[in-house]
């Protein structure tokens, strides 16, 4: 969102923004200028092998900041491994790829980063930009978690 | 708003106490029945009796007269009616000046209820319980009723006042939320006008506001509520007369029980008051809308009612509250619009006019996103090099808004600079990528760089950008440079490739907005592009390129689109 709404001062969604997930979101006007809401989502899960960051839906400019914050949260958990699971991603825009590169480079030498990508929706953009050369890409989550 | 329960333990205790106050002439208790009264039955009782069902003090207990007694229960000798818990001035709306609440801000927009219509439904939506006896009674129940009335009257008034207060705050809160969630000025002003007109119980309301057009000239628009626009269309804009000036100058709220009696009224030619045919206004309330960031007066709300004395302190308070929210919403919208215009202008101003190149026919396009507020970082460039070659550049900076636009400007200039040094494509991209790496924020820029040499050659490198389309004179189509290298800011080496580019051949460079979106994956998008191009008569005209964008994006591209189309016409007039 390019712009912060000046919300009602008594509304808690403003003060606690960014920390709370259960808070009521401000009302949105359908067809309004805030249409640029992410259609995708990001989830974080701790598994014995490390942390899995699962992205769903469109990984584009509107969702990319959430991915970035999720990566930062994941790092604070000091995982042995970070897997970014794109299995459920329906659209991978360049903004999303930029986040993958950023995570990979930011964690270089600290935490191994693996990306789960299967299917042309996600693989084709990674191939066109040759990020397949840079990222450790695995076809399934199991494979990413199991890989030595 | 929390409501008190209708029949709590307290009501029950009251009923029990009052029932025990019914005594015979000998002072002994008499049997008392309880009858639940629906609001309808209560209303009927009211119309049948005299005026005693109007507790002007707001108390909870009423005494029935003989007619009402007979209607209630044949043979009844005495009855008290205990009203259910609440209802805010339940009977005789408007008959109790001390408790007269404002018209509820949540009332329907057309609501202008008169006291008489409200009074035909004495208990509003609330029922009551009647305590009735058929035994001969003395006066003790009347004394008890009077005591209860005296004890509860003030309390009920206080509760009613608090409820009204809470309703006002509720209404303000919800209007505020709606208004500040908007960035569309037209919607903000209309919604604010409607909400405020309803909330203050005005017969009609208007909001006049000032905007500045692209030439920096100020102009005034208005919205209306409660009255069709035609009713105002014939009148000129209100001028800064003595009545209006305090509002337009932001000198505070003007409220008048009868504006026609105001000394400031009617002093200006030509109308000396309201123009002929103007809606009659006696009660008048006007509130300025002042920007919280700049202190500038953004506009003013004006409310009117044909009856005098309609607007109270409470109405003024609500109107000022809505004006405050409107100011925030308008400020937001203006700031947002300014940013959007600024970014659009910035990215537009950084896009070049393609130079005329002998032997080449060029079509270039840059289209900002058709939906949403986004301005992207797409760009194109056509550069004539000193050795007679021509460089074609197309690229996409990740992100939107001012940041993307400024990065784009820098990258475009960097590429231009290295290109003019005569560096080959792979070197141009390598230098730019290294330069980007030194930027504080990590950037991700895709770019296709191609140089047409005077000898039918095309030399190109591709930093993670979509492949170019080469259309041969014989109709065959090939894609150039797919997945040659990583984006700028990511990759370090950018291999070069060559192709023939002869008379009759065409080259098409484009950005991802043309072929992909949330609903269209890039593989599919490129296929559609190739099919569409194959079906077009060549060379492509500017209109054909526009049609291509329209056909591929459905006119609703949510990303920006840039493209360069080059037709190699031949030796030409050079």
Automatic annotation (TrEMBL), chain A:
Gene3D superfamilies linked to this entry: STAS domain
PANTHER family, A to Z: ANTI-SIGMA FACTOR ANTAGONIST TM_1081-RELATED, ANTI-SIGMA FACTOR ANTAGONIST TM_1081-RELATED-RELATED
Superkingdom of origin: Bacteria
Annotated source species: Pseudonocardia yuanmonensis
Domain (STAS): residue spans on this chain: 40-148
InterPro entries linked: STAS_dom, STAS_dom_sf
SUPFAM superfamilies named in the record: SpoIIaa-like (SSF52091)
Stated name of the protein: STAS domain-containing protein
């Amino acid at each position: 969102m390019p712009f912060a709404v000046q919300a009602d001062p008594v509304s808690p969604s403003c003060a606690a923004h960014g920390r709370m997930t259960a808070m009521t979101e401000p009302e949105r006007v359908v067809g309004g200028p805030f249409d640029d809401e992410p259609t995708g989502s990001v989830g974080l899960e701790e598994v014995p092998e490390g942390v899995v960051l699962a992205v769903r839906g469109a990984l584009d400019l509107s969702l990319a900041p959430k991915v970035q914050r999720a990566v930062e949260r994941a790092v604070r958990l000091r995982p042995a491994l970070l897997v970014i699971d794109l299995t459920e991603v329906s659209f991978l825009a360049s903004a999303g790829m930029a986040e993958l590169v950023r995570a990979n480079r930011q964690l270089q030498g600290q935490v191994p980063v693996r990306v789960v990508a299967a299917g042309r929706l996600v693989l084709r953009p990674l191939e066109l930009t040759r990020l397949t050369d840079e990222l450790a890409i695995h076809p399934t989550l199991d494979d990413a978690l199991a890989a030595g | 708003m929390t409501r008190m329960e209708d029949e709590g333990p307290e009501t029950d205790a009251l009923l029990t106490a009052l029932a025990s106050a019914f005594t015979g002439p000998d002072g002994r208790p008499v049997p008392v029945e309880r009858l639940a009264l629906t609001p309808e039955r209560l209303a009927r009782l009211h119309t049948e009796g005299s005026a005693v069902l109007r507790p002007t003090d707001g108390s909870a207990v009423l005494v029935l007269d003989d007619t009402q007694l007979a209607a209630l229960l044949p043979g009844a000798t005495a009855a008290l009616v205990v009203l259910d818990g609440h209802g805010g001035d339940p009977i005789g709306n408007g008959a109790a000046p001390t408790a007269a609440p404002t018209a509820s801000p949540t009332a329907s927009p057309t609501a202008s209820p008169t006291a008489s219509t409200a009074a035909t439904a004495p208990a509003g939506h609330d029922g009551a319980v009647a305590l009735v006896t058929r035994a001969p009674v003395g006066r003790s129940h009347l004394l008890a009723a009077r005591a209860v009335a005296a004890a509860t009257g003030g309390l009920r008034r206080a509760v009613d006042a608090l409820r009204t207060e809470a309703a006002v705050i509720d209404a303000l809160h919800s209007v505020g939320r709606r208004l500040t969630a908007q960035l569309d000025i037209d919607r903000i002003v209309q919604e604010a006008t409607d909400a405020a007109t309803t909330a203050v119980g005005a017969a009609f309301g208007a909001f006049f506001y000032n905007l500045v057009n692209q030439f920096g000239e100020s102009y005034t628009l208005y919205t209306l509520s409660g009255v069709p626009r035609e009713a105002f269309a014939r009148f000129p804009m209100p001028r800064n007369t003595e009545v209006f000036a305090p509002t337009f100058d932001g000198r505070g709220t003007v409220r008048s029980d009868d504006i026609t009696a105001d000394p400031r009224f009617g002093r200006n030619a030509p109308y000396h008051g309201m123009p002929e045919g103007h809606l009659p206004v006696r009660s008048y309330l006007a509130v300025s809308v002042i920007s919280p960031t700049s202190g500038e007066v953004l506009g003013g709300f004006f409310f009117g009612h044909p009856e005098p004395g309609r607007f109270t302190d409470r109405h003024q308070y609500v109107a000022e509250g809505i004006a405050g929210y409107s100011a925030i919403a308008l400020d937001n919208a203006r700031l947002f619009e300014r940013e959007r215009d600024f970014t659009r202008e910035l990215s537009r101003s950084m896009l070049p006019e393609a130079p005329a190149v002998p032997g080449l026919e060029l079509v270039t396009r840059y289209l900002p996103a058709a939906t949403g507020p986004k301005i992207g970082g797409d760009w194109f460039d056509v550069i004539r090099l000193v050795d007679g070659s021509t460089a074609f550049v197309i690229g996409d900076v990740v992100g939107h808004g001012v940041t993307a636009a400024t990065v784009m400007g820098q990258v475009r200039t960097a590429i231009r600079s290295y290109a003019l040094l005569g560096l080959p494509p792979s070197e141009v991209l390598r230098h730019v990528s290294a330069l980007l790496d030194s930027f504080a924020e990590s950037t991700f820029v895709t770019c296709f760089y191609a140089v047409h040499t005077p000898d039918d050659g095309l030399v190109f490198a591709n930093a993670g950008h979509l492949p170019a389309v080469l259309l041969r004179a014989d109709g065959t189509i090939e894609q150039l440079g797919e997945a040659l290298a990583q984006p700028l800011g990511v990759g370090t080496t950018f291999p070069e490739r060559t192709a023939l580019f002869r008379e009759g051949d065409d080259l098409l460079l484009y950005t991802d907005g043309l072929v992909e979106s949330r609903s269209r994956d890039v593989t599919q998008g490129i296929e559609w592009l190739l099919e569409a191009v194959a079906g077009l008569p060549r060379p492509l005209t500017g209109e054909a390129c526009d049609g291509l964008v329209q056909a591929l994006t459905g006119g609703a591209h949510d990303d920006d689109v840039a493209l360069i189309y080059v037709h190699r016409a031949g030796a030409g007039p050079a």
